[in-house]
Write a sequence for this structure.
């Protein structure tokens, strides 16, 4: 089966290392659920969707929940501005993602895996479905997988409806159930009450791909890469002002400055880590490391060189949130509008410092009082850009 | 709220339902939590908000309403839970572990103030020109948090056009704070589903199917959303200016009928706790305001019992004795106009089961512009007929094109309890201090049976009091202590009752002798009846009937569109809660017990009108023309 893009020769320490379709499934079925959980636990794998929740814990909780049905959902909504690594995994390494889904489903006791595919990725749906068809032929999906009589499991693909918030796991589930994409109240968490009220593990594409490798090669092998608190590697979607943008697999703990060298970025003024909901680093912080203990991220890196206008960048982010807030809770729905208005005031020079400081306090409230991660993270760029690029922004106004 | 009901609201608009243990002494049944450093023990699954309220800790709320599922969207009830990175919405947080909660840290206070400031920044409205001034939860929150300026600005222009298309509900979305209470009322409490959030982000607003005007969608006009809206974004379509104009016009003879439920609730608009009836004080106040005559809707409630009861007897006789398979049974009550519109939209195939009897309001309207006009010698075109109702759907009902059997618009205006209170205040009257007076002739004071129409089960009870006396010849008091038919009372959503009529039957009363020769065919029969209040409960019965369940075996079913019946109507004072509705019902039952006359057929004015005017008796030609109606099948998405 040919990928839709000719497979580049990617290399990387973990994800882009050698892997044969079905290996993880075989290994998991041979060694059993407990062993899968043991290896994932010792790998210290954390969710790659951004929140960084330990994957073994999520699978254990879902496995432990009592219910007549359970589900594994692969979060392929990839909506964070500046990420495109899940697309690469799905089109070039579907064996990793789908094997990860089978292994995860087996471990938690699901009979069904669902891929929630970003609406804009519709073009790859047929390709992925053909791939699933191949897996069924090889008995890697379907009934009695690889002869294990009580393991029946299949994967279906559902298209996302095009809202950023639907990448948030509870809004995603709401959307899967046919409702408006709005985040749910927590607790309960999806591991107990998820899709159709059943225990559901929602995992990012990359998390599942990593899990496939871990099952085959062992948790210790994985944990050798990266740092103590951030084991393994991470895919970074690197875009912006550099000569070699693209998807890179790097060990956790990589310094921002090393990353900039790798992609041949020159005269860099700012690096936005984590997409629109992430934080913006000035040159003085380029020695910081990409790791959960320093700057954790879902992998979006945007590079801005010296002639970029930081206020414009911020405005762009805030416009994104004003539009993409699901609109149900007050701090996020109205708060983002106020932050955007603040940016516009700065643009026009009609602001007061007092008011901008009030908006920063408002941002702090949004971070703690919003109903879901969208509103909780949307003030990040507002706060970090105004803090880190104060001089530039103010100079511009005076000029 | 019925915790076991499968809600049709999206899960995002609900909170976790942790089964509260039935036996709190069981292991793990009680959980010790720290609320502001005070240790308290609460049953598993209690929300932080509930736990705090039980312990005299006040937490502000806005999107929370005790009748509704919990959305957790306004976030004003935020509290700190130790160990959690973010604040938690206390209304949506069920306690399942031994947590430590702080309800008034500086972070919490700042967040709440920010949230209130944000809502005010998007809220278009000036309190002094607003209907809800003084009874608005947004206003109270702003006051509670000492808001003395618009921190984040204020809109100076309305964002949306006001939707006045509906006879019943006016929507002014510029005043909406998106608490979604109306959405949850409509889809979850009432299971109608007219309203939903539309669009996203800053464009989010509450809208209807395809953004059509409310009059063009499946709104049943119940007004329950109005009762639960914290602001003036939803209100009833108020005709009081037209009524004042009529009162001020010397050529007009302005009459008003008052229904029992407003009388049991209007005191709340004057700062008196729920549960005080001001019936006779209201009579005096209305005369002082300038109404030419004040009548009791209960008169036509009594008439409804005779018409609807006779209709039922005819149906049963045709079906049981005549073997006529085309007779539609069970017969459904038709006095709740919200229910009428609901069945027209959702179960139009069952419209034959509806009693053709008009509601008491419309019967009165038809009689006022015919019989009464003759009696007082006034040209019916000069009569302005007003109905004080607990209900917003009554406004739609009186505007139905078929409601003109007097040759004029039978009822000109439906006025809600809230609007009446406003008119009384405007007239400079403090209602609770009015002297008492009686209703005007020629309809006088009515029976207690008509009175209890206001509470769920009341129509059924009134009907049973008369039917058992008609059929068995015994006094209702001999069968039910004090003639209180308690099995059909109470606030359970759906009630099913079987009443064996016994082997002894009496003579057929004079009034309906021409319709049935004797009662022998009812010997040993068991009357099966049911009662539902709130359309969500009505839906349960209708779906059961469709599936051929026990309710399909009933003879007579009472349906009320509003939770609690009319006492919980969409025109009643705000706020509403189960406790308030219970207090209002109690007031009505107490008033009923205090009356001599407690059965519709004993009302002498009813006897009088059949003698003088409706001379061919219940369900005869005259009453068919004036007191009966027909229904219109409607669409599932648009009206
Ligand atoms: C607004 C918002 C958008 C999100 N979008 C995505 C997304 O596109 N893909 C993703 O995997 N996780 C996304 N997440 C994170 C998910 O909620 C969830 O944490 C993740 O899917 C869990 O998988 P993981 O544990 O493998 O990371 C988003 C979160 C928020 C708050
Ligand atoms: S934080 Fe934003 S996206 Fe999340 S629930 Fe609230 S309004 Fe919706
Ligand atoms: S809705 Fe409330 S806050 Fe708004 S104008 Fe009316 S009274 Fe004031
Ligand atoms: S009046 Fe009743 S049916 Fe109409 S929108 Fe309000 S709650 Fe829904
Ligand atoms: S109309 Fe009223 S009840 Fe509905 S969301 Fe707006 S403020 Fe809340
Ligand atoms: S009252 Fe709790 S979130 Fe609104």
């Amino acid at each position: 089966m040919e990928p839709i893009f000719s497979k580049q020769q990617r290399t990387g320490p973990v994800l882009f290392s050698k892997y044969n379709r079905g290996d993880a499934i075989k290994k998991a079925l041979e060694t059993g659920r407990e062993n899968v959980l043991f290896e994932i636990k010792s790998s210290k794998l954390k969710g790659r969707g951004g929140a960084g929740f330990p994957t073994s814990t999520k699978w254990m909780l879902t496995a432990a929940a009592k219910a007549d049905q359970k589900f594994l959902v692969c979060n392929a909504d990839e909506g964070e501005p500046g990420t495109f690594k899940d697309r690469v995994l799905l089109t070039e390494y579907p064996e990793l993602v789908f094997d990860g889904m089978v292994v995860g489903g087996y471990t938690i006791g699901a009979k069904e895996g669902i891929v929630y595919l970003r609406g804009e990725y519709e073009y790859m749906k047929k390709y992925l479905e053909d791939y699933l068809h191949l897996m069924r032929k090889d008995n890697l999906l379907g009934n009695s997988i690889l002869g294990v009589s009580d393991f029946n499991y299949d994967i279906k693909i559902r298209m996302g409806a095009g809202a950023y918030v639907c990448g948030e796991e509870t809004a995603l589930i709401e959307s899967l159930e046919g409702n408006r994409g709005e985040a749910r109240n927590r607790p309960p968490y999806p591991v107990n009450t998820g899709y159709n009220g059943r225990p559901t593990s929602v995992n990012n594409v990359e998390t599942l791909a990593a899990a496939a490798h871990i099952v085959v090669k062992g948790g210790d092998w994985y944990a050798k890469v990266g740092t103590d608190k951030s084991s393994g590697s991470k895919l970074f979607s690197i875009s912006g002002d550099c000569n070699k943008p693209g998807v890179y697999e790097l060990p956790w703990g990589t310094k921002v400055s090393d990353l900039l060298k790798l992609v041949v970025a020159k005269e860099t003024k700012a690096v936005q880590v984590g997409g629109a909901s992430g934080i913006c680093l000035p040159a003085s912080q380029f020695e910081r490391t990409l790791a959960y203990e320093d700057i954790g991220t879902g992998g979006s890196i945007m590079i801005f060189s010296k002639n970029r206008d930081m206020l414009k960048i911020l405005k762009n982010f805030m416009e994104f949130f004003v539009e993409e807030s699901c609109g149900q809770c007050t701090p996020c729905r109205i708060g983002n509008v106020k932050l955007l208005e603040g940016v516009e005031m700065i643009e026009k020079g009609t602001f007061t410092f007092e008011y901008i400081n009030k908006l920063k306090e408002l941002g702090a409230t949004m971070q703690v009082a919003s109903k879901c991660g969208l509103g909780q993270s949307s003030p990040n760029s507002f706060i970090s850009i105004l803090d880190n690029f104060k001089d530039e922004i103010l100079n511009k106004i005076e000029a | 709220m019925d915790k076991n009901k499968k809600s049709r609201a999206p899960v995002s608009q609900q909170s976790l339902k942790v089964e509260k243990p039935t036996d709190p002494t069981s292991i793990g049944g009680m959980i010790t939590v720290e609320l502001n450093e005070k240790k308290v023990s609460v049953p598993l699954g209690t929300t932080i908000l509930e736990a705090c309220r039980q312990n005299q800790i006040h937490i502000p709320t806005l999107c929370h309403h005790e009748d509704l599922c919990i959305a957790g969207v306004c976030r004003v009830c935020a509290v700190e839970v130790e160990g959690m990175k973010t604040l938690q919405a206390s209304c949506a947080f069920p306690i399942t572990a031994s947590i430590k909660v702080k309800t008034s840290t500086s972070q919490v206070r700042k967040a709440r103030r920010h949230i209130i400031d944000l809502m005010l920044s998007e809220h278009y409205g000036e309190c002094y020109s607003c209907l809800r001034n003084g009874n608005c939860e947004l206003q109270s929150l702003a006051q509670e948090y000492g808001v003395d300026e618009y921190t984040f600005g204020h809109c100076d222009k309305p964002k949306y056009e006001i939707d006045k298309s509906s006879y019943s509900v006016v929507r002014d979305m510029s005043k909406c704070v998106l608490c979604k209470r109306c959405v949850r009322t409509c889809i979850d409490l009432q299971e109608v589903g007219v309203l939903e959030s539309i669009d996203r982000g800053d464009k989010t607003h509450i809208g209807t199917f395809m953004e059509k005007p409310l009059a063009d969608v499946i709104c049943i006009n119940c007004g329950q959303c109005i009762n639960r809206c914290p602001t003036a974004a939803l209100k009833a379509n108020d005709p009081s200016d037209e009524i004042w104009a009529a009162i001020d016009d010397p050529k007009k003879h302005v009459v008003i009928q008052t229904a029992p439920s407003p009388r049991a609730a209007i005191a709340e608009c004057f700062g008196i706790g729920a549960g005080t009836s001001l019936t006779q004080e209201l009579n005096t106040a209305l005369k002082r305001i300038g109404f030419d005559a004040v009548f009791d809707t209960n008169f036509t409630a009594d008439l409804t019992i005779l018409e609807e009861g006779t209709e039922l007897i005819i149906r049963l006789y045709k079906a049981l004795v005549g073997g006529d398979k085309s007779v539609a049974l069970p017969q459904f009550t038709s006095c709740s106009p919200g229910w009428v519109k609901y069945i027209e939209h959702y179960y139009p195939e069952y419209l034959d089961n509806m009693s053709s009897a008009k509601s008491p309001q419309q019967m009165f309207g038809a009689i006022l512009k015919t019989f009464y006009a003759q009696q007082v010698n006034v040209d019916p075109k000069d009569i302005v007929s007003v109905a004080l109702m607990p209900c917003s759907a009554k406004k739609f009902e009186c505007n139905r094109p078929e409601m003109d059997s007097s040759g004029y618009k039978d009822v000109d205006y439906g006025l809600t309890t809230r609007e009446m209170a406003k008119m009384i205040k405007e007239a400079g009257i403090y209602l609770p201090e009015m002297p008492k007076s009686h209703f005007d002739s020629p309809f006088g004071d009515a029976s207690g049976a008509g009175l209890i129409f206001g509470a769920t089960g009341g129509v059924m009870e009134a009907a049973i009091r008369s039917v058992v006396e008609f059929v068995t010849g015994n006094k209702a008091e001999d069968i039910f202590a004090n003639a209180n038919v308690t099995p059909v009372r109470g606030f359970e959503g759906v009630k099913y009752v079987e009443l064996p009529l016994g082997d002894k039957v009496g003579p057929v009363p004079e009034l309906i002798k021409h319709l049935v020769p004797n009662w022998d065919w009812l010997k040993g029969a068991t009357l099966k009846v049911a009662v539902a209040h709130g359309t969500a409960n009505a839906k349960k019965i209708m779906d059961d009937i469709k599936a051929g369940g026990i309710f399909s075996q009933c003879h007579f079913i009472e349906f009320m569109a509003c939770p609690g019946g009319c006492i919980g109507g969409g025109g009643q004072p705000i706020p509403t809660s189960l406790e308030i509705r219970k207090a209002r019902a109690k007031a009505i039952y107490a008033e009923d017990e205090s009356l001599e006359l407690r059965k519709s057929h004993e009302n002498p004015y009813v006897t009088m009108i059949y003698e003088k005017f409706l001379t061919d008796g219940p369900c005869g030609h005259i009453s068919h023309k004036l007191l009966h109606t027909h229904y219109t099948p409607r669409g599932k998405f648009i009206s």
